[in-house]
Amino acid sequence: MILYTIGLIVAFVFLALKYVYSYWDRQGLPNLRPEIPYGNLRVLAQKKESFNVAINDLYDRSSERLVGVYLFFRPAILVRDAHLAKRIMVNDFQHFHDRGVYCNEHSDPMSANLFALPGQRWKNLRAKLTPTFTSGQLRHMLPTFLAVGSKLEQYLERLANEKQFVDMRDIVSRYVLDVVASVFFGFEANCLHDPDDAFRVALRDLNNPDSFMNNIRTAGVFMCPGLLKFTGINSLSPPMKKFTTEVISSHLHQRETGQVTRKDFIQMLTDLRRKAGSSGEETLTDAQCAANVFLFYGAGADTSTGTITFTLHELTHNAEAMAKLQREVDEMMERHHGEITYDNINGMKYLDLCVKETLRIYPALAVLNRECTIDYKVPDSDTVIRKGTQMIIPLLGISMNKKYFPEPELYSPERFDEATKNYDADAYYPFGAGPRNCIGLRQGLLLSKIALVMMLSRFNFSATIPRKIKFEPVSITLAPKGGLPMRIENRVKQSTPGKPHSDIMFVYTLALVAAVIFLVLRYIYSHWERHGLPHLKPEIPYGNIRTVAEKKESFGIAINNLYHKSSDRLLGIYLFFRPAILIRDPHLAKRIMVNDFQNFHDRGVYCNEEHDPFSANLFALPGQRWKNLRAKLTPTFTSGQLRNMLPTLLDVGNKLIDRMNKVADEKAIVDMRDIASRFVLDTIASVFFGFEANCIHNSEDPFLSTLRRANRGRKFIDNFRTSGVFICPGLLKLTRMTSLQPELIKFVMEIITHQIDHREKNQITRKDFVQLLIDLRREADKGSEAALTIEQCAANVFLFYIAGAETSTATISFTLHELSHNPEAMAKLQQEIDEMMERYNGEITYENIKEMKYLDLCVKETLRKYPGLPILNRECTIDYKVPDSDVVIRKGTQVIIPLLSISMNEKYFPDPELYSPERFDEATKNYDADAYYPFGAGPRNCIGLRQGVLVSKIGLVFLLSKFKFQATTPAKVKFAAATVGLTPDAGFPMRIEHRK
Question: CB neighbours (10 Å) of residue 158?
């Protein structure tokens, strides 16, 4: 069963992903072919590339202006045109004012920072925070930058004296963290001298690539915001959230009570809160302050670290540029007597050019994201970007494109010099562009430039690794794999590159798939809760039919068990992934099928007339197509047509007697279900298919063996088809899988095609169903109506092959089973048969069969206990207000009528376990007539019910007129699992004897 369940889960995931991954095909946008379950980010999932590099690779795989991509399960548009990208961020900002990243202000306040907030909330906060990054405020921060810079100089001097190899990225990151702690958090950290300082450890844990939860959080923030919203996982780990909140709340309180005053970001926030409080404006909450301070902690630290260290790395491979910049630094320091000021730094032209070139090759965030907030028609194009679409601007791809930056691999600061300008200005925006650019860009640049000036003024740096950098695969920003080791000397021991991470991607992928399944199923399985209908609690991934999935019960028995778990009139259930309503009130059920048929005229089962003609039979067709076909086929089941079929039924009946005589002579025990099945199949072959089969005598007859192969040893794919037809029609529509095995389709098509062609060419006429279809085709041609196609003919003939065979077989064999346990009823029926045969000299006619009252009662009672289909299904086609209720059944809702349960309910059928044909006698009537509809009710009842009953009755008359049947199994039937109808688990073995 576990394989079946796993297969079902895999099938569901496959179908869901196939739909997701056909998004851009459906939208008609050029796109890169995705891979399940990675989308276009397989290298990211396998930890071979970082997100930034992966997006750059996608950029290089297309030449389209806009190209559709998939960020795992999220469709997005890659904007390959730098000019369009800038227009999106600047001129048409009103269409793209959000980033589309995770933000949950109420449940996860730490996610609601300036980077993530959407719309007006972002605009309001931006307006409040913008004044904190003015030139004046930056000047106030400068002393802090210089104080921490002095500690950096002292630390590097010790290393230079030892002429060590050092990881400059590690050292610079610790320097930047000390600055961030002071400027943004308001306290003095000591990360530079103490690598295990709590402030650094917290960030190190945040960026730990080996943490599965960190990877989930990162994916949730940037690629799949729904992951975090549905799971309730916070964007930050609880320790990180606690650390930041406690620090910020503590310092805000100290500042507001006047205990401490400093020229840092916390003080600016405190002043903002005071100003807002005094003017009655909405003030920043502690959570908002913490969220935005953390933004500069997590993002700002990485950005400044990258700018400083990548500049040093490039300069160590460009001696001329290094010399030129150090010369400028020396001149500035000499000119201003070693004093570093805000204005001095801004006056350094070549330093500015170097930093710009570094940010071109190594942008802080190599991918810019925007979300379309208003439908947007792309200029000079027919393409319309729909609201909600994620936009990806591949900054790294654009900045390394020779179309915009000639010789992009070359580190050339001079390209940004106005005198030697050699780039497309509309393609350069390392901190974004427009209203949503990085608010802290000037602060980040100032911090980076001060560090470079202080280091390059006193030390020389020599590269120890090649210029071409390999980036860490699990990182938000561009982080060099193994750091940036250098030798440092006055004016580093090579640290071992980071140990490669073991590839745990398989587990990661499984977990990601599991997370998607969980979220989808969580939404599906809250359907009835959201609609306020009493329901049974589902189990993932079975819904309420676990026993069906585990092949412990048939679908009909499983529904019967659900019926008994509630006393509500209407009960919400889940058929695996499909919500449905169980109608427990038979009067309402009948009303749905009869009086209010216009609201429930479809069955809601699988039907795909174009791609799977065999599914488009009378049972499955919806709406007007069903109505048209029903009108055409109804005349084929009139009393006159049934009379015409009778000779065929009698011929097959005589073959049945021949077979039974041999069995009775041997007083053998035989499976009467098998015998009845052979009789019915020979009848169907002749009446519906138009040829003589010999299933009764030949176990290898193709007509019998084909059906047996279809029903025996059912594989997972066969159960998949059955589920697709009755429970989840979307399964087959999405996969384009046929509802029947190809072998069955081929078998039926060959027979019907041959029969129709043979008769139409040779003008042969027979009194059978194929002939009736041929006549309908001829009449349609004469009347210029749409004639039935060969496929339609075959589909409906097959319907009677598979459904009719099962129903009539069951009616005959279950009746024999019940009679063999009820000698009184057996005797009474055999007496009625004997009297009829004697009265009409052994002749069986249509009228004679109809006269047999007790036979009719027995068949009715059998169909009560063992209905042909134990459930009836309908689909709501127009919203329906349930009478005497406030419940509205919405259009598209699947409705299940538990026929077996209703017919075995003592409220409607007293002593339901008792086999009592007399309950249907008008003289002793003992049942609720509105609860009895074994073939359905209303316009959509079974069209072949009279034919099926006639075949069953004739079979019983033949058998009971000649033979005695003794049961060898208990009266209580154990039903087989993995079947549509009610099938005895071990058949009906009986002892057969001649009647005297």
Answer: 9
CA distance 648 to 685: 10
The residue whose two tokens read 């940036």 is 484
Note the residue count of the chain.
Answer: 996
Alpha carbons 70 and 517: distance in angstroms, whole number: 18
Please give the pLDDT value at position 713: 46
Confidence of residue 499 (pLDDT cuts 50, 70, 90): very low
CB 216 within 8 A of CB 233: yes
Instruction: Tell me if the bond preceding 363 is cis, omega within 30° of 0.
Output: no
Return the bridge partners of 991, or none: 669, 966
Query: Is-contact 814 861, C-beta < 8 A?
Result: no
Mean pLDDT of 433-460: 91
Round to whole Å and give the CA distance between 645 and 636: 11
Give the pLDDT score at 925: 92
Question: In this structure, how many other beta carbons lie within 10 angstroms of the beta carbon of residue 442?
Answer: 16
pLDDT on residue 761: 80
Which string of DSSP letters, residue by residue, matches 671-708? EHHHHHHHHHHHHHIIIIISS---TTT-TT-HHHHHHH
Is 50 exceeded by the pLDDT of residue 498? Answer: no
Who wins on pLDDT, 584 or 753?
Answer: 584
The Cα 723–Cα 160 span in angstroms is 73
Contact 361, 411 (CB under 8 A): yes
Q: In whole angstroms, what is the distance from residue 434 CA to residue 411 CA?
A: 27
Rg (CA), the chain: 40
Provide the 8-state DSSP code for 609. Answer: T
Alpha helices per DSSP H over 581-701: 586-593, 623-633, 639-665, 672-684
Closest CA to 413 of 318, 285, 532, 515: 318
Specify whether the CB–CB gap between 895 and 876 falls below 8 A. Answer: yes
Cis peptide before 238 (omega within 30 of 0): no
pLDDT digits (tens, 9 = 90+) for 706-729: 766 655 545 556 566 666 666 777
- Cβ atoms 432, 89 nearer than 8 A: yes
**Which are the contacts of 437, defined by CB distance < 8 A and separation ≥ 6?**
89, 429, 431
CB 328 within 8 A of CB 348: yes
pLDDT at 497: 39
- Sheet order of strands, 74-79 included: 66-71, 74-79, 390-393, 368-371
Q: Which phi-psi region, left, alpha or beta, contains residue 100 (left: φ > 0; alpha: ψ -120 to 50)?
A: left
The residue type found at 607 is C
Mean pLDDT value across residues 813-834: 95
DSSP state of 187: S
Question: H or E segment at 166?
Answer: strand 165-167
Quickly tell me which residue has 């079975």 as its tokens: 542
Give the position of tokens 């039974």. 660
Report how far residue 790's alpha carbon sits from residue 773's, in angstroms, rounded to the nearest whole number.
10
Q: How large a percentage of the chain has pLDDT more than 90? A: 45
Q: How far apart are the first and last CA of the chain?
A: 50
* DSSP code at position 430: B
Q: What is the pLDDT of residue 786?
A: 67
| Percentage, residues of the chain above pLDDT 70 | 88
Task: Give CA–CA dist 802/687, Å, rounded.
Answer: 14
Q: What is the pLDDT of residues 849-900, one digit of tens each?
A: 999 999 999 999 999 999 988 999 999 999 999 999 999 999 999 999 999 9
pLDDT for res 833? 95
* 50 vs 912: which has the higher pLDDT: 912
Helix or strand holding residue 352 (H, E): helix 349-361
Which of the 8 DSSP states describes residue 471? B
Query: How are strands ordered across the β-sheet holding 485-490?
Result: 165-167, 485-490, 459-463
pTM value is 0.56
Give the number of C-alpha atoms closer than 13 A to the C-alpha of residue 874, restricted to the C-beta side.
31
- Please name the residues in contact with 278: beta carbons below 8 A apart, sequence gap of 6 or more: none
